[in-house]
Specification:
two-stranded antiparallel ribbon, single chain, globular, mainly alpha
């Protein structure tokens, strides 16, 4: 039908797949689902995943690098991803290789998992004291200090000095 249509495939990534079980998960944001799908898409092809946050932000076009970093950190601390440093000497950036924990949970239907007797374990959070990377309230640059008038400031200052 379209005989003279020119198809350009250079520069296009065609390996991102979205997985229905993952997309139905209500605990994850859309960005987190896309990140996990991107990692799974590489894993099932037998390729390592070590994109930088800046590259993924550029591919998605909507998110900033810091947003991608925070979501990767959240996924790792929540137990969805495992990461480890990766440097083969050919890259200027410090890279981290990522893999999805219990990938079977997301790519196979529940009935197949039951028939094949693949046991899916609950996620194990990696940070006992809370997810500091994800909690914006604890980020130093996001803190908003209350305004103090000079009287309250002097009382507070004297109280802390005299302790």
């Amino acid at each position: 039908m379209f005989k003279n249509k020119k198809i350009e495939s250079e520069g296009l990534d065609n390996f991102l797949r979205l997985f229905p079980k993952l997309m139905k998960n209500k605990e994850l944001t859309l960005l987190q689902k896309v990140i996990i799908s991107d990692v799974i898409s590489r894993q099932i092809q037998g390729q390592p995943y070590f994109k930088t946050s800046a590259v993924l932000a550029k591919e998605l076009g909507v998110y900033k690098k810091k947003t991608i970093q925070m979501n990767f950190q959240h996924l790792e601390s929540s137990g969805y991803l495992n990461t480890q440093p990766y440097n083969d000497g050919n890259h200027a950036n410090d890279l981290r290789e990522a893999e999805v924990v219990q990938i079977e949970k997301w790519i196979f239907p529940d009935d197949f998992l039951e028939k094949s007797k693949i046991s899916i374990l609950p996620l194990v959070k990696k940070n006992k004291d809370g997810d500091y990377a994800w909690d914006r309230k604890r980020r130093r640059s996001k803190l908003v200090l209350p305004r103090l008038n000079s009287r309250n400031f002097s009382k507070m200052f004297c109280a802390t000095v005299l302790r």
